[in-house]
Structure formats: structure tokens, C-alpha cells
Write a structure and sequence with these properties.
Shape: globular
Radius of gyration: 16 Å
Number of domains: 1
Number of strands: 5
Largest sheet: 5 strands, mixed
Distance between the termini: 27 Å
Number of helices: 8
Length: about 190
């Protein structure tokens, strides 16, 4: 199985974001709709395989995360992502905080990007949600352009939420079964 297919985001715009962050151009991430479906896929199809699941912080907590995983504190990410490691397997969960549309707006604001001046031309959370909930957002060039800008500006400014997120996933994809949580915490 390709490394791209080991990354399992739960919504269309998340798939677009992580394809851009991780530079998966030919074969994209393993999109799966909904947090519960992602957890089910991890348990059933990736039972003995390495994977990184990406889910949104929804109103309801996911019992699986508290029951089966340890929360790992990664400095600089707490207000943007929560990171979990499954206790007995090479399964990692990254929970976007808050939900991805609010996260996009927060990152754009932090990086001084006016979303109304981008190809998306949105000025409110509601407008962004309308675009992001469509299946087309998975491959939408407007989102890809925005996410490439996030990466570029984050690298220029050493903006920790995007840089550390990307580096964390790249580390996991490189090390897979040999990943060391202590290395991630201290990176």
C-alpha cells in the first residue's frame, strides 16, 4: 500500500489540504467521510497496518480516542491540532481544532491572508463552509492555491501550526512502525 493511502482524512477539504501539505500529486490520500467511518476504517482495514487518521473536532468527543489512544502534547499545536497515538498499534490520529473551516479561517488570519482576496473570494465562515462541504473541494484549485500559500508563508515565517503539522506527518510517514513519540515531542 502506498504511503498516501496510509493518510485517512475525514472530509473533502481535509483531503485537499493534506494532499497539498504532503505533496501527494499522483496518488491522493485515502479520503473517508465522517469521523466514525474513519475510526471504523482504521480498526478494520488498517488493523495491523500503519496509518495517520485526520478528523475534525466535533461537538461530540470520540470515545475511541479516550479509550484506545494516548493524547500526545506537541508544543505549539494545542490550539490547532490534538495528536493521539493508539496504545497498541502504529495508528496516529490528528484532530483538527476547531473544525477545518474555522481552522482555515484562523490560519489565514494568523498568516495575514484575506480570504476575500483569494480565489475563494469568501468573507465569512458560512461562505467557506458552503464551498468546503462539496465533494469538488477535494480537488478544487482554489483550495489548493490557498493551501500552497499557507505552506509558503508558514515556511517563510516559521509558523509552527502548519510547519510542525507537516513535519510531524512526514516524520510518521518516513518512520512508520519505528516512529518514536519522544522524537516527535522534542522535534
Amino acid at each position: 500500500m502506498s504511503l498516501a493511502k496510509s493518510v485517512i482524512p475525514e472530509c473533502y477539504v481535509d483531503s485537499c489540504l493534506f494532499n497539498v501539505l504532503l505533496k501527494f500529486e499522483k496518488e491522493g490520500v485515502n479520503h473517508t467521510k465522517g469521523n466514525a467511518t474513519v475510526v471504523k476504517k482504521v480498526e478494520e482495514k488498517f488493523n495491523d497496518l500503519f496509518c495517520v487518521a485526520i478528523i475534525d473536532k466535533d461537538k461530540r468527543d470520540i470515545d475511541f480516542l479516550t479509550r484506545e489512544c494516548d493524547r500526545v502534547e506537541l508544543e505549539g499545536l494545542g490550539n490547532y491540532f490534538t495528536f493521539f497515538k493508539r496504545r497498541d498499534k502504529s495508528h496516529y490520529f490528528i484532530q483538527i481544532v476547531p473544525a477545518v473551516e474555522e481552522w482555515i479561517m484562523k490560519v489565514a488570519n494568523d498568516l495575514e491572508i484575506d480570504l476575500s482576496q483569494t480565489d475563494l473570494k469568501v468573507s465569512s465562515l458560512e461562505e467557506l463552509k458552503k464551498l468546503s462541504k462539496k465533494i469538488e473541494s477535494k480537488n478544487d484549485e482554489r483550495f489548493k492555491s490557498l493551501f500552497r500559500t499557507f505552506v509558503k508563508k508558514s515556511e517563510e515565517k516559521n509558523y509552527v501550526p502548519v510547519v510542525k503539522l507537516r513535519n510531524t506527518i512526514l516524520y510518521l510517514l518516513d518512520k512508520t512502525y519505528q516512529a518514536d513519540i519522544k522524537e516527535l515531542i522534542n522535534a
